[in-house]
Amino acid sequence: MLIKKAGTVRRRLTGRGFPHLGTRVLGVAVVAALGPLVTGFAGPVAVQAAPSAATTATTARVIPAPVSMQTVPGQPFTLARDTKIVVGSRSRDVDGVAAFLAGLARPSTGYPLPVVRGPGDPGHAISLRLAALPSLGTEGYRLDVTRDGVRLEAPTAAGLFHGVQTLRQLLPYRVESRGVQPGPWTVPGVHITDYPRFGWRGAMLDVSRHFFTVQETKRYIDEISMYKINVLHLHLSDDQGWRIAIKSRPRLATYGGSTEVGGGPGGYYTQAQYKDIVGYAAQHFITVVPEIDTPGHTNAALASYAELNCDGKAPPLYTGTDVGFSSLCVDKDITYKFLDDVIGELAKLTPGSYIHIGGDEAHSTPLADYVTFIDRVQPIVHAHGKNMIGWNEIAQANVRPGPATLAQNWSLADGTKPVDDPLATAAVQKGVQLVTSPANHAYLDMQYDKNTPYGQNWAGYVNVQKSYQWDPATLFTGVTERNIRGVEAPIWSETLTSIHEVEYMAFPRLAGIAEIGWSPQHGRSWDEYRTRLAAQGPRWTVMGVNFYHSPEISWERPAA
């Protein structure tokens, strides 16, 4: 039986725009290449509650909260001019993590912080090494800080990178500065054992409604990687613009990408630029998941190639914000040849294991045609060596179970008690795991309140507390933790024209959603979290992040 989604029709703003506030490309240093891209995602692992030590004054600054953190009284470590970063494993990836740490701390401390290789832990050093720690999964780490040095161990380079993000937050916020700052550069003595709750911890950036440059996208990668996000979902096509060059269909980018919401110039990534973004994300242990939204949200493609329309006539380019009016022609063979070409080229450019085929709001596609379409597209994705992810509407089709398919659920959720959602139920009954993105909790383009200068409110106002207080495993009736692959925070760009505006909507909420994806649910509380979040304010200020100073948080401020 075909299922209609209850109560989750997206209502878009029409004719609303905001001035371009400019772009500031600051952020952390560009890091050395780290080798092969991480292509898989670990499933959920057993977790224990974060202990009360995580809330003490000296350590209550880390987001996401570690699984286990104990203080070591009287054992702070202080960086000095002779401090070295010692790499104990012969690995290009580990060398890259060490280079990242050195590149972060050198400008602010003024110290040389040489990266050296050695089997042991010389005095007063930060030691990074791979170690057999199977209980930590593929992304966990162990961090020990004493007055004699810092020892960071992990089963993989990804784990070391996540551990460096924790060490970064334990350092004074001035470490983010690009100029020399006064010390001391002291880290509290701690013992941390940490690993993620979910293997998919994503952030989605919509580059279709408004286009964001390579540098703007890299800046967002810099920012989200601080909070152990490991998936960047790029929404590359929609009614308003096509943003990736396809050599077999060049007009998709040159014509379909020539505009955006409000009639701006649009833009697109060349294949070399896209590969640059993918590689940069890989250096931050983030896997790019590209989305080509189908069968609806396709006006840019339909305007570029008339033969994709059922009547053979190309519509004009579209610069508004309505949804649900466009559709590929399900009955035409050219539709599937077109998708085979597009997905084939995209798959070659994308080392990650998933291609997102959209599937949402196909209101102009009859439901029977919609099922036929999804059933024909999934084998195309698999033929190019990838697995399929789509918005939760794909659960209406005959999707394959197991890792071959993921359904990204954007349905509205109560947050305090499970609600019935037919599409979530249909997905799990077919053996399909969910990536949870409840629009009224996780959509970062929702306004904070009625005074927010950007964004929308069709899913309601979403303040910082509401964005944090929900559990992926208790959103929907009949859906448990084993049905969840992870979480993702989308940001749609109908009203967002620059990365400056994206940051305002993403921060501080993205940090909380990252914690939902990483940290144990048991022991999380709003009152405790808001104290840790307050400590991020000076860090973001020094980095130049245009974050929203929510009145819900008693923000710490940088020293004069």
What does this structure look like?
The protein is of the alpha/beta class. It folds into 2 domains: 68-194, Chitobiase, domain 2 (2-Layer Sandwich); 200-543, Alpha-Beta Barrel (TIM Barrel). It is 27% helix and 16% strand. It contains 15 helices and 19 strands. The protein has helices spanning 92-109, 157-170, 214-225, 251-254, 271-283, 299-304, 333-349, 367-383, 422-429, 439-442, 464-468, 499-506, 509-518, 526-534, 536-543; strands at 68-71, 77-79, 84-87, 115-117, 125-130, 141-146, 149-154, 185-187, 190-194, 200-206, 231-235, 237-238, 241-242, 287-294, 354-358, 387-391, 405-409, 433-436, 484-491. An 8-stranded parallel barrel has the order 10-11-14-15-16-17-18-19, surrounded by 7 helices. A 7-stranded mixed beta sheet has the order 1-9-6-7-5-3-4, covered by helices on one side. A two-stranded antiparallel ribbon has the order 2-8.
Task: Choose one word for the global shape.
Answer: globular
Which whole number gives the mean pLDDT? 90
Number of domains: 2
Reported for the largest beta sheet, the result is:
8 strands, parallel, barrel
CATH fold assignment of the largest domain: TIM Barrel
Structural class: alpha/beta
Q: What is the CATH superfamily of the largest domain? A: Glycosidases
Order of strands in the sheet with the most strands? 10-11-14-15-16-17-18-19
Radius of gyration: 23 Å
What is the level 1 CATH name of the largest domain? Alpha Beta
Task: Write the CATH architecture name of the largest domain.
Answer: Alpha-Beta Barrel
Query: How many runs of DSSP E, i.e. beta strands?
Result: 19
The helix fraction, in percent, is 25-40%
Number of helices: 15
N- to C-terminal distance = 64 Å
Query: How much of the sequence is in beta strands?
Result: 15-25%
